[in-house]
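#struct-help
A.M.: can someone run this one for me? Single chain, 183 residues.
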Amino acid sequence: MSPSTLALSQRILERLMPPAQAEALLGDLLEERRLRLQAGSQVSVAGWYWRQFASSVPTLLWASVRRGAWLITVVTAVASYVAANGIQFVLWSALSPMTSKSGPTVVGLFSFAAALAACGYVAASIRLGAARLLAFLAFATTCAMLAISTPASLWYEGSLLVLGPAATIAGAALSGRLRRVRL
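D.P.: on it. Structure tokens below:
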């Protein structure tokens, strides 16, 4: 097992564990792995480790769901996404009469970015992880929208894909709370 694979699996487990117990539990797992490496082969130890990992993840996920920590983050992100769409619609409706061009416009990009920045700010103020989830929602829904809609110009599609997550993270950074979060 490569060191990068081991580090990734440790990060996954750390994210699922209660913060107060993560260090001790991960330390015990690594210590047991080290002891098994002294007595057995790399292949058998890797198999043992992945069985431990696979059996731990469902239990840790269920404990996380029962703690309800993720629920506030998801609700905040989804509510922020709905609010961003409403703000974008209002901004676009107010600003679009000023342009004579139909189709993709800078006004559309501006309203998209401004709405997501504002909602990223609010989401990060409520729950730190909600802004990152909002950025992901913006990216995923933009990808889906671009996949099912008629093709627009490449500059517009690329701008949507970059501006959505970037504006959300910029808004979250303005809240002042993003500095304390590892991205």
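A.M.: thanks! Residues 3-67 form one domain.
D.P.: also worth noting: Helices lie at 3-16, 19-39, 42-67, 69-95, 106-126, 128-148, 154-174.
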